[in-house]
Amino acid sequence: MQKPFLGFGLGLRTDHFQDVLDRAPTVDWFEVISENFMVAGGKPKFYLHAIRERYPLVMHGVSMSIGSADPLNMDYLSNLKALINEVQPEWVSDHLCWTGMQKMNSHDLLPLPYTDDVIQHLIERIKFVQDYLGRQILIENVSSYLTFSESHLTEWDFLNIIAEEADCNILLDINNIYVSARNHGFKAEQYIDAMNPNRIWQIHLAGHSDYGQYVIDTHDHDISEAVWELYQYTAKKIGPVSTMIERDDHIPPLGELVTELDKARLLTAPLWHPQPHLVCV
Amino acid sequence: MSSDALAELQKHFLAYLQGSDQVQFSDYILTQGEISDEQRLAIYRNAYRIRLKDVILVDHPVLSAYIGDIWFDKMTDEYINIHPSQYYSLRQFADHLPQYLNHHAPFLDHPQIGELARFERLLLTAFDAADAERATTEELSTLSPTLWPSLTLRFHPSVQLFQSEWNVPLIWKAIKNEQDPPIAIKEKCHWLIWRNTERLTEFHRIDDVSLTLFENFNQGYDLAYNCEQILALMIEDDVSSRVVSDLLGWLSNGLIHALIHEQKPASSNLLPV
Ligand SMILES: [Fe+2]
Q1: Which element (helix H / strand E) includes A73?
Q2: d(CA A91, CA B90)
Q3: Fewest Cβ atoms nearer than 10 Å: which of A106, A129, B126, B233?
């Protein structure tokens, strides 16, 4: 399937539900956190449907735990499938991580050892999920703070091999690449250079907290200059990709996020829609 | 790395997040740069606790304000240890909080605290319970009088009955309005909690008559049976006007999903014999 380009989106947050309806902001699409809408009814479902009538949506999950050693949670997958039916999203994504096992959920996006065995484990599971859902999914790179001694591959090789072999697409989080690059001492550009542009269907941008020695992916700040630069580098390298901003804490008024999103439009405009040269007569 | 080895690594990682130092988890990780292994691991351990504490704060803003920061930290730290999340959604994580508060010191000596948690969780249940149509007062007023005795009804899925032993809803209301809460006093009564047509959660106190009507209607008993039941609680002349007034109140506040007035086949199996 050809990679669709949705334009520029925002993560839909409770604080902005009513504003989105009242002000119809110039946002091309919204991303919703799937688990937040796995409830029976009430306000969450009301706004989900009302906003869906006005905007394209994509669904982003945090609990698939695709890298867990435990069997996949079929209860979760069946609820996810039901929500997909209800929302009819453009696509569905989750993370290259695990979140728990043996019934315990850490609700955190925990890192994996980058080994061949783990690659095989992920490929099988992603294929199963895609068959079950009857659609391709997108897998997102997470921020990480440690490397397992067992890892003998880079994260970008690990991710690329999985995407090719499982035939899934990639949600590339530019902030997560920046955060991990700082924490592990690799070059972020090297990561971007290694990625297969055809697989990258979506980009996440977000803010982080910089503690000097290390950086934490907090989603509670504006996007940093360094991440904007890396985004621009990526945009040049891989061409048009649906881009959105994730903000999860210290959430500013909707208008401020729309302005921040406009920066992504401005930065990519000359790269993705080159203007014809003006000719002086 | 075999699947057993992956399972073992993940088991040890979770144990580490939960505070166990039985396994030297840093043996699993590569020492890199200027950040120590311990610092790297601590980022995960802290994030795990902060996230879950935050869930409890968001689910229980009034309870958190009522008990104050020191007890909040004690409550959340212990709760996270005793009831690690077994759910894929954080929505259920604090489901056991009322039970925890009722059984652990110092909270168990202040039973209104556990009750306040139970009240806040019922508000959450009403908040995102299933949607359903609401019956209207007009449906009742246009109902043929011959159908009244056999009338039954179905409540909206958001409707919750809350039995309090303490003046917890008043404490909740004061804190919500940023006022000093009243002193906790024993006050056994009943409340109905529901989500109104504007999708806002409401609650109101009900007396013994309304409680009887609510419980009987909720179990499927018809109006005739209800009238008989409340005869014991009031004088006969007032019975029908009281039933009508409760029904109209519930209808106009959106508590009733449907009025059912077909002759019910075999409904008598609901009646006590
Ligand atoms: Fe992300």
Answers
A1: none
A2: 23
A3: B233
Verify that B86 and B28 share a domain, yes or no: yes
The yes/no answer to whether this complex scores an ipTM above 0.85 is: yes
Indicate whether B76 and B124 sit together in one domain.
no
Q: Which residue of B has its CA nearest to A109?
A: B44
What's the one-letter identity of residue A67?
A: G
Contacts for A238 with CB less than 8 Å, ≥ 6 apart: A192, A195, A197, A200
C-alpha distances (whole Å) from B255 to each of B59, B204, B239 are: 24, 12, 21
Q: How far apart are CA B145 and CA B135, in angstroms?
A: 18
Domain A2-280: give its CATH code. Answer: 3.20.20.150
DSSP A207-221: --EE-SS-EE----S
Closest CB to A216 among B27, B43, B87: B43
In sequence order, the 6+-apart residues with CB closer than 8 A to the CB of B2 are A117
Write the single-letter amino acid at B78: E
- Cβ < 5 A residues, ion ligand 1: A 173, 204
**B173 and B119 together in one domain:** yes
How many CA atoms does the CB half-sphere of B119 hold within 13 Å? 28
Q: Please report, for chain A, the start and end positions of each structural domain, with discontinuous segments joined by +.
A: 2-280
Residue B102 inside a domain? The answer is: no
Chain B contact set for A103 (CB, 8 A)? 86
Q: Residue B133's domain spans which residues? A: 110-262
Q: How many domains does chain B have?
A: 2
Cα A172 from Cα B144, distance rounded (Å): 64
Fill in the amino acid letter for B14. L
Same domain, B87 and B114: no
Count of CB contacts below 8 A, A vs B? 138
pTM of the predicted structure, to 2 decimals: 0.93
Beta pairing, strands A98-101 & A104-110: antiparallel
Comparing CB atoms, the residue among B6, B93, B126 nearest residue A121 is: B6
Q: Which of B151, B71, B159, B162 is nearest to B115 (CA)?
A: B162
